[in-house]
Amino acid sequence: MPDTERKSRQIRIGKVSVGGGAPVTVQSMTKTDTRDVPATVAQIKSLEKAGCDIVRLAVPDMDAALALGKIRKQTKIPIVSDIHFDYRLALEAVRQGVDGMRINPGNIGAKYRIKAVVDAVRERGIPIRIGVNSGSLEKDILKKHGSPTPEALAESALRHVSILEDLDFRDIKISVKSTDVKKMIAAYRILAEVTDYPLHLGVTEAGTYEMGTIKSSVGIGTLLAEGIGDTIRVSLTGDPVDEIDVGIKILKSLGIRRNGIELISCPGCGRLEIDLMKLVKDVEDRIAGLELPRPIKIAILGCVVNGPGEASEADIGIAGGRGKGMLYKDGKLVRSFKEGKIVDELVKELETFAEPAS
Fold first, then answer.
1. What is the pLDDT of residue 1?
2. Do 57 and 33 meet the contact criterion of CB atoms below 8 Å apart?
3. 0.90 exceeded by the pTM?
4. Which one is predicted more confidently, 323 or 337?
5. pLDDT of 2 over the 50 cut
6. What is the predicted pLDDT for the residue at 273?
7. CA pair distance 34, 63, nearest whole angstrom
8. DSSP 3-state of 23
9. Assigned CATH topology for domain 261-354
């Protein structure tokens, strides 16, 4: 992280710390009907396995709110209820044992309703995420700014924050998401300057896997590289497990993720003498469940000519071609072997990192 890393206050969502120097967490949202407990539990467990730190569930009605407790008992990661307008759903979510809540206080009506929610979450130590999107700004703010500008997004978020602060509640995190990457970046920069609340980064409605990955990587990655952001959610159309995969890779690409394996590979060229795409896929499949005590960078190169130099920046490098494989450690050749043993030799070397020092 850069020396200018933003210092935010810390909140806790269940057992997970957000902000205040805690590791950047990766979130997702279930896409099942929350009222379908078995399906929702199954999806959360798949997200847990993928490395999800926090999961959000839509709570559109009281039946969904009443299902939260059953879901909570069968899962491990913190659960955040996503509620709009109806304060009674928020109160029931608290009773059901959620760990966090996404609700905008300015949208739930009379002050006594807001106070009832704040009193309930305060008693249980549940933080509130204020989530502002470019498509749901207040009419007066839109009229003032003319469109969902970064300034409009920030103003809306701070309006909701002030409502909670007036009730002496500051266990808050903020998101200001937009489908426009440049507006999203600018809005978060504004908030980073004027408040120390933890920031939840995301590009809303980012799109399908390919375009959503690009937009999220640019938006979220830019801010994280500037030291802005405490938790992230990559919004993709499709399986939410993909959101976790992309989110973790964004963190790894910036050296933020504090454990796991970062896999890098050359783009390939006319010198290739190996099926590089298959090799990378085979390596990914074999290392998927491998737990290591510290971050490890693996470089996969398809050329024994430039491979040695290109592997020098990685903890482990493998190069293949001309029927043989070569394994490098900290830039130095360790051993060579037949091409068909590349993946086995790599996994064998990785397992030495998992072994305790003698």
1. 40
2. no
3. no
4. 337
5. no
6. 62
7. 9
8. coil
9. Sulfite Reductase Hemoprotein; domain 1 (3.30.413)
